[in-house]
Amino acid sequence: MKIGILTSGGDCPGLNAVIRGSVLKGVISYDTEFVGFRNGWRGVVEEDIVPIVRHDVRGLAKQGGTILGSSRTNPFEGEGGGPENIQRMLDRNGIDAIVAIGGEGTLTAARRLYDEGGIKVIGVPKTIDNDLAATDYSFGFDTAVQIATEAIDRLRTTADSHGRCMVLEVMGRHVGWIALHSGMAGGAHAILIPEQPQSIEQITEWVESVRDRGRAPLVVVAEGFKFDDMAEAHSHKGLDAFNRPRLGGIAELIAPMIEERTGIESRATVLGHIQRGGEPTAFDRVLATRLGMAVVDAVYDGAWGSMVTLRGTDIQTVSIADAVGTLNQVPQSRYDEAKILFG
């Protein structure tokens, strides 16, 4: 059997570990042949294929990014797009199945290719945002949280030196998992997430409480956070390839509002793509490797249109439809737990 692997959407630490786990499992257990599609779905649509042998994945688990490249390409667009064209491309190259490593957009496209064209595809959930349902955690999340926590630790020292309020914006799209975990780990005085809209009055109340105790306030905000009078999350960067708004910049709105209302000098830091870079943590290396190995078993089981997932400490297989139908949001109980520490 020949399996084609792609990494699509935003990059994240652990992608290479999935590739390594898949290739080693396939070669050792099934004598599988592997190829990679360069730059995600773009490589599928443009027939940009490279062979992957065991030597190519040597020592790859600790390496960040992806050796195959990535993009935010819609596989239903372009001259080679759509299930019929993709199936013809697979037949020409003797490729029996596709392993699609990606987040919500990638997996939605994979499921649609299977539903509408019978493309033999299985997904591996990838997102630093941890926003995919049907999996307890996705690889890349733990590394992003660690990077954000280190940023909080660094901001705290400069905030204390100047008596400033620091507002740190982290990624997460429409969920607040990175903000919640890094904020709790770093001892943030307020954590603002999309699932819990707040008023500027409540935020300044928390900030002033910290100031009155002689501390320098530190606020962590997820990029998708909304004030309680906002209908949509702040976005000024247009749309991505799947027509979703590119979020970011809410911290730069909040910081001057805090300063105006409290008189506390305030600064915004947008962490941005630093959260996606660098070497994966040990947790993400192990999770990504296990998912990579499991997806090869799923291919040989013929579990098309599904994805491998983490449930507790076990790797299982579930329908992609179960993962992309709803967001994995921060539950009220988790936010109430953290909220005790605010102010």
From TrEMBL:
**List of catalytic residues:** 129
Q: Which residues of the sequence carry a binding annotation for Mg(2+)?
A: 104
The pathway that the record names for this protein is: Carbohydrate degradation; glycolysis; D-glyceraldehyde 3-phosphate and glycerone phosphate from D-glucose: step 3/4
Give the residues the record marks as binding ATP: 10, 72-73, 103-106
> What is the annotated localization of this protein?
Cytoplasm
Superkingdom of this entry's organism?
A: Bacteria
Q: What Pfam families does its record include? A: PFK (PF00365)
One Gene Ontology CC term in the entry: 6-phosphofructokinase complex
Q: What is its main location?
A: cytoplasm
Residues binding substrate: 127-129, 164, 171-173, 223, 267, 273-276
Q: What is its EC number?
A: 2.7.1.11
Q: Which cofactor does it need?
A: Mg(2+)
Question: Main role?
Answer: Catalyzes the phosphorylation of D-fructose 6-phosphate to fructose 1,6-bisphosphate by ATP, the first committing step of glycolysis.
Give the family this protein belongs to, as stated in its UniProt record. Answer: Belongs to the phosphofructokinase type A (PFKA) family. Mixed-substrate PFK group III subfamily.
From the Swiss-Prot or TrEMBL record, give the protein name.
ATP-dependent 6-phosphofructokinase
Species annotation: Agromyces cerinus subsp. cerinus
Q: Which gene encodes it?
A: pfkA
